[in-house]
Amino acid sequence: MIRYDCKTGQRGYAAGRAFVMRYSKAEEYFRGEPAVEAERLDRAVEEMNRKLAAGKEQGGSVDTALIDAEILILNGDEFIGEARRDILEENLSAPDAVDRAADKLCAMLENGTDYIKERSEDIRGLASGLNAQIMGNGPLLPAEPCILVTEELSPGELMMIGTDCIRGILTETGSPTSHVSVLAGNLGVPYLYGLEHILDKVRHSDYLILDSENGCILVNPPEETIREAEERQESDRKTREERKAQAASRTTRTSICANISRAEEADGLLDAGADGIGLFRSEFLFLDRNDAPSEEEQFEAYRHAAEAMKGRDTVIRTMDIGSDKKAAWLKMPDEINPALGLRGVRVSLGHRELFRTQLRALLRASAFGNIRIMIPMVASVWELEEAEKEIRAAAEELDARGERYRIPDLGVMIETPAAVMIAPDLAKKARFFSIGTNDLTQYTLAVDREARGMDAYFDPLHDAVLRMISLTVEAAHQNSIPAAVCGELAGNPQAVRRLIEAGVDELSVSASKLALARNEAADAEEMMEKENALKKSGGITSPADGFLVPMEEIPDPVFSGGVMGECVGILPADGKIYAPISGTVTVVAAARHAVSISGDGEDILIHAGLDTVKLNGEGFRLHVQEGSTVEQGQLIMEADLDLIRERGFNPMIIAVRLKPQNEI
Ligand code: PEP
Ligand code: MG
């Protein structure tokens, strides 16, 4: 078995036989006259166009606009026009001309931003596909479940292959934000990249394990590991299906909405369980093209999304161009630190006509559904005021044209610490907030979200970020507006309960995470309800942090049978035990494992662990004694949970509301 470190494009775990996509070499090619070569090129382009169009039609959940971008490159003068000129004027073979044109185009992009550089991946993929076509030797496509392995891959190729057979993707070149990565993410396929000399290291039919958690692949592991990997895949698949079915039967107070990048992704979202669209990243309409989209084109896209939502919220973010998302046609200054430069609302306010066009399209589309406009990267109140002015001006223009329109609610995306600190002021002018935790983490922790090697510092669960979220929600609620979270944190199972506890009203996640978010939110809400019910029943608070276990599920008949009184179990997160009520400590067990407190008409027994009387006090540290007066929430004892487990006891903490003596 060999292990290679790789980089993660899309997280996940996959195992299976490698399907190596290879093309034959150009040296084996028999070159014809220039006219013949030009014709071979034309035929290959025609065939490629046909395949791309077919792939687009079969699109399904795939983002078809990415294919449009490929078609645009394929038919552009800079690529195929250049190749044709080289064939006719310099007598190059068609494959050599394609390679040279691709090299030139990629070299031009080399000087661009990271985002533009990443388009080179698409061009290289197209060149490989064209040459395979010209040489009459297109890649064999997988027919059985496999891990797709190739030096480079274009979105179009991925579309043509389809993903029914693909368990995972491994490429030599790539990046987490390349279009292939975006597609893989939309389709829920794990994607690793960055394995140099990939074709020397992985051979067709090798058994591969892709493991993004450990950032590595395993090539030809032993039988035992293969068996475990197959089992893990199967159990992952079952879990996903169960989670989906379970989510469909659950309702939550918290809205669960979807993030989309293209209007067509709105189709089928309601059936997939979305309560609406929480973030439509409209800037994707502006990228990968030669000019700005017209008002009409934008209107159609926004209307499409709004209509698909059938009256549900459709939050459309105005173009968040800049930083890693530069539109090639829009002249932007060279910036040393683009994440801190012109982006989001700053670009909109610097290009008023462009912004006004987008707003007119949004206002017109609002007549067909429940569109809400959201402004990204706000740091000052005046930016929001300027956006409001532009909306009014757009409305006046539409009045003058006699167009049908509606002025949608205006919201603010909270992505900068500045916006958090002035959230009370912003909340007076906005109708809703949505917290973009990706950027909020970047700017709060001063960690570039695109930079390599910074993973350890990019922590959206950092206390600083969580407090920013709480402050935002507080400001929103004090001003009676809702607060959503639409960054990646909304789909992070470790975060959902904390977000809901912070009072977040909506989670907006990618379509593949809708079920997960619904289930996590439902669990969190149920748990909180139980805790609240317990608190309400006499102002008793939980004696420990952890998960609640209902009385009937406590694995001890004395407690589950209610012999001593009504009780609840807690699977403790740590060994700290607090007073559930204020009062006097009336009993401390000789074995230090149980304490009871009386106060305000209640008698509560806290019993740490099941059967732990047998430990004779080992593993328990008391902070009170009989007769001590305690305040609710005061630390009264500590239990060494590791020791309790090591000795074979269940560490569940039981809180018993003791029956009055005469009832026992
Ligand atoms: C965010 O910053 O959290 C967000 C949702 O916006 P984007 O990831 O598009 O910057
Ligand atoms: Mg953002």
The CATH superfamily of the largest domain bears the name Phosphoenolpyruvate-binding domains
Please identify the oligomeric state. single chain
Ligand roster: phosphoenolpyruvate, magnesium ion
Mean pLDDT level: 88
Examine the secondary-structure arrangement and name the CATH architecture of the largest domain: Alpha-Beta Barrel
Percentage of residues in strands: 15-25%
How helical, in percent, are the residues? Answer: 40-55%
Q: How many DSSP-defined strands? A: 26
C-alpha Rg (nearest Å): 30 Å
Strand order of the largest sheet: 1-8-7-3-4-5-6-2
Apparent shape = globular
Name the poorly predicted regions.
Answer: none
Count of DSSP-assigned helices: 21
* Span of the ends, CA to CA: 65 Å
Count the domains.
Answer: 3
How many strands, which pairing sense, and closed or not: the largest β-sheet? Answer: 8 strands, mixed
Look at the helices and sheets and give the structural class: alpha/beta
Task: From the 3D structure, determine the CATH topology of the largest domain.
Answer: TIM Barrel
CATH C-level category of the largest domain: Alpha Beta
What are the main properties of this structure?
single chain, 664 residues, alpha/beta, Glucose Oxidase, domain 1, TIM Barrel, Glucose Permease (Domain IIA), 3 domains, eight-stranded mixed β-sheet, eight-stranded parallel barrel, 26 strands, globular, binds phosphoenolpyruvate, binds magnesium ion
